[in-house]
Amino acid sequence: MSSLETARDLLREFPVVDGHNDLPWALREQVRYDMAARDIAADQSAHLHTDIPRLREGGVGAQFWSVYVRSDYAGDQAVSATLEQIDCVRQLLARHPADLRPALTAADMEAARAEGRIASLMGAEGGHSIADSLATLRALYALGVRYMTLTHNDNIAWADSATDEPRVGGLSAFGREVVREMNREGMLVDLSHVAATTMRDALDTTAAPVIFSHSSSRAVCDHPRNIPDDVLERLPANGGVAMVTFVPKFVLQAAVDWTAAADENMRAHGFHHLDTTAEAMKVHRAFEESNPRPVATVSTVADHLDHMREVAGIDHLGIGGDYDGTAFTPDGLNDVTGYPNLIAELLDRGWSKADLAKLTWRNAVRVLGAAEDVARDLQATRGPSNATLADLDA
User: Fold this and answer.
1) Average confidence (pLDDT) over 370-375
2) 303 annotated active-site
3) Cα 232 versus chain centre, distance
4) Which of 18, 20, 185, 324 is catalytic?
């Protein structure tokens, strides 16, 4: 039996729990949530990385759907957009009950696996989604959100992002209270996107295991979105899980360097690096024609997992592809059908079936269950926090 056949067999028993998929935002941007226009029961490969037939082919058994909203949204706009994203996921679940099972707990995930359905959970991406309100945080939990990434690409008032200039120095006093309230609710603290100082402050504060829903190793690829070794080394004591991402500019050093050069070229021509006007795109295309974009592969991602395993241990690894949240993907991981290729590569590198069962399924289910246990204990000792940003960060 080939490694790929063995991988497919393994995924039938222990399917992938993927920590981060941006399908809801893609549906918002492409068709303003017109589910009939992007019917994921059918092949949507012309438009999306994700649909149900390809999730099945890829061996996905549970998906954290991101209810991401842009980090330049703030206040009521951020909260309203997050609610619209949650509604999108709820619509998807209502339209596809034979394939997608709502899941709120680790037990729900196991029930979905037993039924042969894809457990569907939600994760908020950025603390701006709660508009500095612990009551809003609790409301998101009540609506089914089971993790929150503390920041996205920009700083917020109480936490520093990995890709913004330091302002708070990690977590503020209110930021630490957010972490404590997430612990009390049973909402996983997600440290993807945050500054290393924020990672360390969160680990110093949390009573529950953390996750990184879509981050890779900074030692392998030096990008601030990745996890430093000193943080990975803390996961065994914390019990958390780092879910490797596939985004080429986060996993391949040549792609990091290429992106920096492309951005500098845009600035040299008087454009912001995110400018998508016709004139700006003409400059970008000319750069890419003379400087071909480096290509990541399955092996690139496996290199991260090998290193992360060495530093954090097999019990602290998972997968978070970031499909439909990135324009580019590695060869062999082109869409959600690609997971068996990664498992086959790891088999060829000597990973055991027991190791891979932890990577794909067991670690992620365990960490959600652990957060539930901590919440049960905390709720027995204290009520909800009504602290405010003004109270704690004055």
Assistant:
1) 99
2) no
3) 16
4) 20
Could you say which DSSP state residue 388 is in? -
Task: For the chain, list the domains and their CATH numbers.
Answer: 3-252+296-392 (3.20.20.140), 253-294 (no CATH)
**Between helices 196-205 and 173-185, what is the axis angle to 10°?**
50
Of the candidates 193, 125, 187, the residue with the CA atom closest to the CA atom of residue 160: 193
What angle in degrees, to the nearest 10, is found between the helix axes of 339-348 and 298-312?
A: 60
Of 108, 125, 132, 372, the catalytic one is 125
Residue tagged active-site, from 49, 193, 284, 307? 193
Work out the burial of residue 350: count CB atoms within 10 Å of its CB; fewer than 13 is exposed, 13-18 middle, 19 or more buried: exposed
* Residue of 177, 322, 324, 335 with catalytic role: 322
The pLDDT, as a whole number, for residue 274 is 87
- The pTM is what? 0.98
223 catalytically annotated: no
Per-residue pLDDT at 61:
99
pLDDT tens readout for residues 149-208 = 999 999 999 999 999 999 999 999 999 999 999 999 999 999 999 999 999 999 999 999
pLDDT grade, residue 394 (50/70/90)? confident
Is residue 315 scored above 90 in pLDDT? yes
DSSP 217-250: BTTTS--TTSBPHHHHTTHHHHT-EEEE---HHH
What tokens were used for 113? Answer: 């696996």
Condensed to tens digits (0 to 9), the pLDDT of residues 239-295 reads 999 999 999 999 999 999 999 999 999 999 999 998 999 999 999 999 999 999 999
Q: Is 193 one of the annotated active-site residues of the chain? A: yes
For 285-311, the three-class secondary structure string (H helix, E strand, C coil) is HHHHHHCCCCCCEHHHHHHHHHHHHHH
Decide if 385 contacts 181 (C-beta within 8 A).
yes
**Active-site residue, from 49, 128, 152, 304:** 152
Which residues, 6+ apart, have CB-to-CB distance to 63 below 8 Å? 17, 18, 21, 55, 118, 119, 120, 121
Q: Is 22 labeled as catalytic in the residue annotation?
A: yes
Tell me whether residue 68 is exposed, middle or buried, using C-beta atoms within 10 angstroms of its C-beta: 0 to 12, 13 to 18, 19 or more: buried
User: Active site includes 322?
Assistant: yes
Q: Summarize pLDDT for 72-101 with one digit per residue, the tens.
A: 999 999 999 999 999 999 999 999 999 999
From 214, 304, 307, 316, active-site residue? 214
**Which has the closest alpha carbon to 241: 220, 270, 211, 198?**
211
- CA-based nearest residue to 187, from 18, 372, 380: 372
